[in-house]
Amino acid sequence: MAVSAQSRPFLVGLTGGIGSGKTLVSDTFARLGVDIVDADIIARDVVAPGSEGLSALVEHFGSGIVTASGELNRAALRERVFSNEEEKAWLNACLHPRIRHAMQQAAANVKSSYGILAVPLLIENDLTGMVDRVTVVDCPEDMQVARAMQRDGSSETIIRSIIASQATREQRLAVADDVIDNSLTPEHTREQVKALHATYQAIASQSN
Question: Which Enzyme Commission number(s) are listed (predicted)?
Fold first, then answer.
């Protein structure tokens, strides 16, 4: 658990594997009035049309990674970096600092008593130092696979390969300060979120 920074509010890092139910948890925190900093949204914003991030990618990879409407062609970009470790490393070095900086700016603007930093790859990208507490959304792997297949329409092979590329369930649980069991009903999950919300409000008030 990281030490709280004076320049920003108390932050809880929310993470979990594909299909674990992070969106349900994040949406429940939001309905309770908690400001959410969503890493996925920020990652899209840093390569939006007209952004410095997209310009840097085009300069490196060429205009073939941009659609006719000026959007990033993610499929074309994936093709360029797939199985090319050097290009993948360049891409990460280009985008990760931009994403991290944007997340820090968004976190500094949190107005609620504490903020949620929702980062699917919090563990994998070694971002736990950005938060004061780590909350993991957890469920059995077979449940992850079934949910992700239903949501994305992807094959079991693809979903399991994504799971294999992420931190293991054990690795996430090892760094968790709090665990939300999302293996039962949505209402059961929401009740756990409400209980943690009260806990985080109390901790945040003490840290101010």
Answer: 2.7.1.24
Cβ atoms of 36 and 29 within 8 Å: the answer is yes
Q: Which of 5, 8, 9, 11 lies closest to 118, judged by CA?
A: 11
Rounded Cα distance between 15 and 22, Å, is: 7
- Cβ(136)–Cβ(178) under 8 Å? yes
Task: Confirm whether residue 19 is marked as ligand binding.
Answer: yes
33 assigned binding-site residue: no
Residue in this structure with the two tokens 């976190």, named with its chain if needed = 107
Rounded distance between C-alpha atoms, residue 199 and residue 10, angstroms? 12
20 marked as binding residue: yes
- pLDDT tens, 16-43? 999 999 999 999 999 999 999 999 999 9
Q: How far is CA 60 from the centre of its chain?
A: 26
Query: pLDDT of 51-67, one tens digit each?
Result: 999 999 999 999 999 99
The amino acid occupying position 63 is S
22 is in an annotated binding site: yes
pLDDT digits (tens, 9 = 90+) for 132-177: 999 999 999 999 999 999 988 888 998 998 899 899 999 999 999 9
Give the domains, in start order, of the chain with CATH numbers.
1-34+113-208 (3.40.50.300), 43-111 (no CATH)
